[in-house]
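Go through this fold for my students:
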Amino acid sequence: MTKEKSTLNEELQSSTETEASSEGIEEVFAEAEAVTEENVETNPEDSRIQELEIKLQDAENRYLRLQADFDNSRRRARIDLEAAQKYRAQSLITNLLPALDNFERALQVEPENEQTKSLLQGMDMVYRSLTEALKGEGLEAIEAVGHPFDPHMHQAVMQVEDSNFESNVVVEEFQKGYKLKDKVIRPSMVKVNQ
């Protein structure tokens, strides 16, 4: 009987351990399910938060790009306005240049009598006041004769060999050139020494 009792005790103990271990397993499964349910419940929130964070980053990037584009367009508009103000008189001056040329040609005529002399003096006064007004707007004549040839400021229409001038120096000016501030509006037509 003692043998049977000990076997029964062992069986009872092993069944208790099995029950305890199965109860432990069930508890572990229950905890795992609870954690999974929590994850399922929090995962949609986490994924929604991540999605919103991505959308926020995209919106911030678009905002920064728009702001940079706006700043660039404002800067371009300011530069265009400054250039328009700087060269506002260019079209008027360009239209007046042939009149200046005609004045210069007329003033080179030798007066034959007193009436022609007084007429030339009046033309000279008009020419001077016109050139002063144009200088006030930033017009300057380009120096040519005796200066080195500069293709940005001079337009060579002839070449000669003259021992009185160095090579590549302007010998004669056929038509006066002009700059408006820092911009050449008409290059000088010149004869250049080879």
